[in-house]
Write a structure and sequence with these properties.
heterotrimer; A mainly alpha; B mainly alpha; C alpha/beta; A: mainly alpha; ABC transporter involved in vitamin B12 uptake, BtuC; two-stranded antiparallel sheet; 13 helices; 2 strands; globular; B: mainly alpha; 72% helix
Chain lengths: 360, 307, 361
């Protein structure tokens, strides 16, 4: 018996929704078997990683604040990738957004007023966008590949944090430790649900995704991004400038990464610390593709990633699963999700032993 | 003079694993496939190489184990992206997550266990004078990396198989219609890239620091990916790129260790310098020349022949 | 375990309006649950490994009276906060946060769980239910420096660190002061590699230092990378950091500074069980065995060992303190007057280098 893949006329709507569910179920089954075989509590691991974060209401807030930056960055990247602009330095733009916002917070330290937070957020967006403007400039002017520039700039940005918090921005009361002072009250992101840690960044993330979805599906901008990405020649013919598209894609994805950065500083961190970069920018690349470069899909993908992070820690505390095992589970769920994509575009057909005439 | 030689020898150590991994990725990308999982494959290669050296004490077996482990890991990527045409960027990143987790899990029993460093390839008598050390003082992977620069250049430029590989990367549909197996070529390329990444990973415990530490490649796999772009997919330029990067990284440490006027530069700027230098040099190169990035046309795109 | 989980789930459903809090009460007769969070992996053979050894020591000593849990590789920031809350909700009544960067999160979560005791290593923010603990690693550095002062032939020592935080600066200064008591011509070259976990870069830094004439290397990074290079190059020596690393460099490890958190963890756990725990601020060293010295390498001459021992025992009985003036900084200005000993607060925020330390980049 043989199977053959056959292209569907149109992507299957059923599969769009069914494959992610199947992927998660498969990960649970295969993961439970593999980890039981190598001597861990496989079933417990699956329960703690995938179910506890969903069934335990304490964990929802954690999922929210973990997913928010992933969603915001992921939405930006999905727009850029639609246009075939390969910004993989979102981590650096996230850092620069955080630093720019921190600068405002430190400059306004001790002041009060409702204008401080919006100013910080603006600075964060601008900071991220400006950092993304460097690869955009070199790409447009000199055709320098943006994968290299955006990635290298990420490493440089991390060193910039280290420098700033060690020297000019060091907390004078911090016993010499490399970190800025705690932001004053006006520079901190408020929580939106009393009694929880859910901060303003969570609704902003949802809003960003919906606005992006609307723009991408309804506006000329969205059309331009998609056309330039899918059919550059046709786009040029249709009067869309490629340079302009690169600029827009980089600035939007960089700006959103910067937004995520400042929301993260002003929300959970409330000061700049050396541990600020935590790979959100890289994880969001996966989130963007997992969400099929659709802003609404990115929400789903961001939450899935958040579940594996939060659940991984639960599994460490409850059944003593090593941190490394979480990584394997995370990779497994991604592998299955990515593998499942094929069923959206193709169907499995059983091939009879006698080849039909005119096959292939 | 002596210090120059010393710097060079340290530089060779720093550049070799990056160069080996990047050479593998170059072949993969020439076939039209973008595998961002180099870091993950390197880590799997590192733990496999460490374990083999730990149990057998034979560094050549250890390199082989690294190559095998890297190639095996790359086949996860190969199956997903080539057989199931999954998205390459995301699959590569997922592969790095996998490699990081797998190597940490497999490596846990090996913490606090030392191994022997790999010895230089040539007898010590050849490398007594410092000048001769520059030529004969290294262990096998260093010479292997130089050999592979030439071999890959020759393969891509001068052989029929190399021509086919490039054709698959430039225009998969026509290569397919002429009758070449696009998938077969790409599988082979991905496997080669995995083996090279695995060897590069094994170089960490065998050449640089004879221990196992989680995430011990510390981002070098990403540098390898970036350098392929830097090199415009050309092996000799890749050699230059890896050594430029290694040079700035090594200079950082020698300048910090030496003190003197260079101490005015903040430590963090030094640490950022290899990355910035790579950008600056690439920009300068691009200024001088007609901007052609030379990227394989099918890079990163799934092969979807209409049946 | 399942029962515990269910209980939490039920409480969770009931308290959905206030989903943040929901820790289980600590019933009498139940084992005390203790949580540990580590910034790195327990397999680093250094800092985090040592903390985990302390955890195992508590388990071994108190047996069924305790139940310990750890979470490794916890990033500083919101992730740490979440893990702390998770541990508190799981019913851990004593939680050790073992890295400086966890401080803000500990304070936040401690406010939400007033009945849980927290202890934060190497930090400075205290609260009603947040105690601080630290170890006087510099005392060990003074022993190392004494040996280095005797043995170094080139008079050049080096110190590889990640970042210039007070803990590291203090260690460099202790090494320099003690070595220069023996040989006033000695200089110490600090090198910061600007990363926490990159053993290959650490090793290359050691190579760069040795190539420039350094013959004794101390390092303040986790893991044996620098020590291994010292062994490979056959210089006079180096020191183990956090744990005895003689397996990695049998001929080259002169001695090691061993972190021994066990006794402190045991005392805190016992205090919580007895109901006598109060938020303390301990900074213990050689005297309390929180800092221990590894075996002296046999190649060290007996009189040098004797001198090192004198420094060690002097710090134990209180007759010797390495940070007693006169101390000049590396610009030549006097920082500590003769006979004056620096206070703990001054030490913990040290950001200048003593005479003989080259200003690092």
């Amino acid at each position: 018996m043989q199977f053959r893949l056959e292209k569907r006329q149109e992507p299957s709507q059923l599969m769009v929704y069914a494959t992610p569910v199947a992927a998660v179920l498969l990960t649970m089954i295969v993961g439970a078997i593999i980890f039981s075989l190598i001597g861990y509590d496989g079933i417990g691991a699956v329960r703690e990683i995938f179910l506890t974060p969903l069934t335990n209401s304490y964990k929802w807030q954690d999922l929210g604040i973990k997913a928010a930056p992933l969603i915001i960055i992921g939405v930006g990247l999905s727009i850029a990738y639609r246009a075939n602009v390969w910004n993989i330095g979102a981590e650096g733009q996230y850092v620069m957004g955080g630093l720019a916002g921190t600068w405002v917070a430190l400059a306004t330290y001790g002041m009060t007023g409702p204008w401080i937070l919006p100013l910080m957020i603006l600075a964060g967006v601008v900071g991220g966008a400006l950092y993304a403007a460097i690869p955009a400039f070199f790409k447009v002017r000199l055709n320098v590949n943006e994968i290299l520039t955006s990635l290298m700039l990420t490493y440089a940005s991390v060193q910039l944090i280290y420098y700033l918090i060690r020297a000019p921005w060091k907390d004078p009361m911090g016993m010499g430790f490399p970190q800025t002072r705690l932001f004053s009250e006006a520079a901190r992101l408020p929580t939106v649900i009393p009694g929880t840690i859910v901060h303003l960044g969570v609704p902003i993330a949802i809003l960003v995704a919906f606005v992006a979805w609307f723009i991408m599906s309804r506006s000329v901008f969205g059309y331009q991004m998609k056309v330039v990405g899918a059919a550059p020649h046709a786009a040029r013919y249709g009067g869309f400038s490629e340079s302009k598209t690169i600029w827009l894609a980089m600035l939007v994805s960089g700006g959103l990464a910067g937004l995520a950065g400042i929301l993260e500083v002003a929300g959970p961190f409330q000061r700049m610390v050396p541990g600020f970069p935590t790979n959100y920018g890289f994880t969001a690349i996966i989130v963007a593709f997992l969400g099929r470069l659709n802003p609404l899909g990115v929400i789903f993908a961001g939450v899935v990633m958040a579940i594996t992070f939060v659940g991984g820690e639960v599994a460490q505390t409850t059944i003593g699963l090593p941190n490394a095992a979480t990584g394997i589970f995370q990779a497994m769920v991604l592998f299955f999700l990515l593998a499942g994509d094929i069923l959206v575009r193709y169907r499995l057909r059983r091939v009879s032993s006698i080849p039909a005439s005119g096959a292939a | 003079m002596d210090i120059t030689i010393a710097i060079f020898i340290t530089l060779v150590g720093a550049a070799t694993p990056i160069l080996i991994a990047a050479l593998g990725e170059l072949v993969v990308e020439k076939a039209g496939v973008l595998n961002l999982g180099v870091e993950g494959m390197m880590l799997v290669g590192a733990i496999a190489g460490f374990a083999a050296q730990f149990y057998t004490g034979n560094p050549y077996l250890a390199l082989l184990a690294g190559a095998f482990a890297g190639a095996a890991t790359s086949m996860i990527f190969g199956f997903l992206t080539l057989s199931l045409s999954a998205n390459q960027t995301a699959t590569g990143l997922a592969l790095t997550i996998f490699g990081t987790g797998f190597s940490a899990l497999a490596g846990a029993p090996f913490s606090a266990r030392p191994i022997e460093l790999m010895r230089p390839l040539f007898p010590a008598e050849l490398a007594t004078h410092p000048m001769w050390r520059v030529l004969f003082g290294y262990s096998a992977p260093v010479y292997f990396s130089f050999f592979m620069v030439f071999a890959i250049w020759y393969f891509l430029k001068k052989t029929r198989a190399g021509l086919i590989l490039r054709a698959v990367g430039e225009n998969d549909l026509s290569a397919h219609s002429i009758g070449y197996s696009v998938k077969g070529v790409r599988y082979a390329a991905v496997m080669f890239g995995g083996a090279m990444a695995g060897i590069a990973g094994a170089c960490f415990p065998l050449l640089l620091t004879p221990q196992w530490a989680e995430r011990m490649t510390a981002g070098r796999g990403w540098i390898a990916v970036a350098l392929v772009v830097f090199a415009s997919w050309k092996p000799f330029r890749l050699l230059a790129g890896a050594y430029l990067f290694g040079l700035v990284m090594t200079m950082e440490l020698y300048a910090k260790a030496g003190g003197g006027p260079l101490s005015i530069i903040p430590s963090e700027l030094w640490a950022a310098l290899p990355y910035l230098a790579t950008i600056v040099v690439l920009v300068l190169i691009s200024l001088r020349r007609d901007a052609s990035t030379n990227a394989p046309a099918c890079l990163g795109k799934p092969f979807l022949p209409s049946n | 375990m399942t029962i515990t989980r269910r209980t939490i789930l039920k409480t969770g459903a009931a308290a959905a309006a206030l989903p943040l809090l929901g820790s289980r009460a600590f019933a009498q007769g139940e084992p005390l649950k203790i949580g540990f969070i580590y910034v790195g992996t327990i397999n680093d053979n250094g800092y985090n490994y040592a903390h985990n050894q302390g955890r195992l020591y508590v388990e071994e000593q108190l047996g069924d009276a305790v139940e310990t849990t750890y979470v490794e590789n916890v990033p500083e920031g919101p992730d740490c906060e979440r893990v702390l809350r998770e541990l508190a909700q799981q019913g851990n009544k004593l939680i050790f946060a073992t890295s400086f960067g966890f401080g803000d999160s500990v304070i936040k979560v401690a406010q939400q769980f007033p009945d849980v005791k927290f202890e934060h290593a190497t930090g400075y923010q205290k609260a009603e239910n947040v105690g601080l603990y630290n170890a006087r690693f510099y005392e060990g550095r003074a022993v190392c420096g004494t040996i280095a002062g005797h043995l170094s032939k080139t008079g050049k020592l080096a110190y590889i660190g990640s970042f210039p935080i007070p803990e590291v600066v203090m260690g460099i200064n202790a090494l320099a002061l003690s070595a220069r008591r023996i040989n006033p011509d000695i200089t110490v070259k600090p090198v910061y590699i600007s990363t926490w976990n990159d053993p290959a870069k650490e090793a290359d830094a050691a190579r760069a230092l040795i190539d420039q004439g350094v013959d004794v290397i101390a390092q303040h990074t986790d893991g044996p990378a620098a020590l291994q290079v010292a062994q490979e190059r056959g210089i006079i020596g180096g020191f183990g950091q956090g744990a005895d690393m003689s397996a990695f460099a049998p001929e080259t490890q002169l001695t090691a500074i061993i972190d021994n958190w066990g006794p402190h963890y045991l005392a805190s756990a016992q205090a919580v069980i007895d109901g006598t725990w109060v938020a303390g601020d301990t900074w213990e060293g050689l005297k309390e065995n929180v800092v221990e010295m590894g075996p002296y390498n046999e190649k060290i001459p007996a009189e040098v060992v004797a001198d090192a021992e004198k420094v060690r025992t002097g710090q134990i009985d209180g007759s010797f303190h390495i940070f007693t003036g006169p101390i000049k900084d590396n610009t030549g200005a006097e920082r500590v007057a003769a006979g004056v000993t620096m206070t703990d607060a001054e030490l913990l925020s040290m950001d200048w280098y003593v005479e003989g330390v080259e200003q690092p980049a």
